[in-house]
Amino acid sequence: MSDAYSPVPELNLLKAFADRLGPVWYSDGFELREYGADAGLETWSEEPEFLGRLVPFANANGSGSNYAFWRCDDRSDLSGLPIAFIGDEGDLYIVARNLLELFQLLAIDDEALEPEFVERHSEAHEEYVAWLEQTYGLRPPVDREALRAAVKPDDDRFQAWLAQMGIG
User: Fold this and answer.
1) What is the pLDDT of residues 140-164, one digit of tens each?
2) Is residue 4 part of a domain?
3) I need a labelling partner for 97 at 20 to 30 A (CA). Which of 5, 103, 148, 156 fits?
4) Residue 43 belongs to what domain range?
5) What integer pLDDT is reported at residue 13 of this predicted model?
């Protein structure tokens, strides 16, 4: 039996980084949670196909939103799956094409996008950005609009799948 946090090596590396930091924020509202644990998905649908295709792994904010892998196919490398945002206010959409793209988005540290918060990054933001670059050679994205456009085909497929499930 493995002591690993998850079957996803990239998530395990992030978990080890977060454990080294201790109880501090490195990206606004983001926090790893028990891998695969209930994230209130049954409030959307109790269909086994729906519940079996979303694998929650992180809180997206402090009010009940989550990130989950969308098992859009049966690939073995889960890190390559699209990442769904499961919102506490009724939003369901694909936020990233894969896990490393989500890691890049986390490096934006959302509060920093608002002009009045430019100097108010999360406490361990710089450590996270350094970890991301050292571990994966990635930096925060420069063009968020390009990322949104790139994720659109995955989100369109996700929205079609949700409609098949009777959601949306």
Assistant:
1) 988 888 988 999 999 999 999 999 9
2) no
3) 5
4) 9-164
5) 97
Q: Which long-range contacts (CB under 8 A, 24 or more apart) does 140-145 make?
A: 140/104, 140/107, 140/108, 141/104, 141/105, 141/107, 141/108, 144/108
Q: What is the pLDDT of residues 60-107, one digit of tens each?
A: 988 889 999 999 999 999 999 999 999 888 899 999 999 999 999 999
Per the structure, how many domains does the chain have?
A: 1
Write the CB contacts of 93 (distance below 8 Å, at least 6 apart in sequence): 84, 85, 155, 158, 159
Query: Does the residue 59 lie in any domain?
Result: yes
**Phi, then psi, of 141 in degrees rounded to 5:** -65, 145
Structure tokens at 71: 């098992």
CA distance 112 to 107: 10
